[in-house]
Amino acid sequence: MNKLRTALATAAAAAAALGLAALATAPAQAAAQPAFLAASQMPPSSTPWTATQVFTGVPENGGVLCAPYKIPAQNTRYREFSTELDTNGVQVTTVARTEADAVKLVDTLRGALAGCGPLLEQQNPGLQAVSASHGKLAVEEGAWVYSLDTADPQIGISDTHLFSVGRDGRTVTLVRWGQMGDLEDAPLTAFRTTTKTAVNKLH
After folding, report:
1. Burial (0-12, 13-18, 19+ Cβ within 10 Å), 165
2. Share of the chain above pLDDT 70, in %
3. Which of 112, 182, 106, 190 is nearest to 144 (CA)?
4. Of the candidate ranges 19-33, 65-79, 136-150, the one whose mean pLDDT is the lowest
């Protein structure tokens, strides 16, 4: 009888230990969401970057310039960035249901960014808009960089934007940087570094 009681006590202790281990690991697994860029990881600026908290869903305009409503709100979060000199940015990250869905979303976003200039000119008569591709970056499953230059002769304002789309497994992230000026003023090399950092931080 004593041997039986000892065996039962040992089994109970082992079960309790396993239960505690499961409780210890469960919160970590539940909290394993894609990480976001910090303000300091945006391209250098003459004034410091600030970052909002990470919000659930997509930005109010349904996504970002050139790709509105392309990113589903479900399983999506975003963070916005800004400086004192009207330089701004955003990172939108979504976890697709399957890796195939993630690949499809990347293709959709790349198509929207590549064709953004002509589409904006159609939608806004008088606006001059030029899109350009700046190649693929070797990070995780890949990331692609694009730019958009816009000018409104009637108002006399020009803006430049940099975009990137990257993927790590089922997770897709889109990063945008923008300010007044032309593409020659844009920190393209630094933005490539920001993009690599963003994709590497996903998981």
Report:
1. buried
2. 85
3. 106
4. 19-33
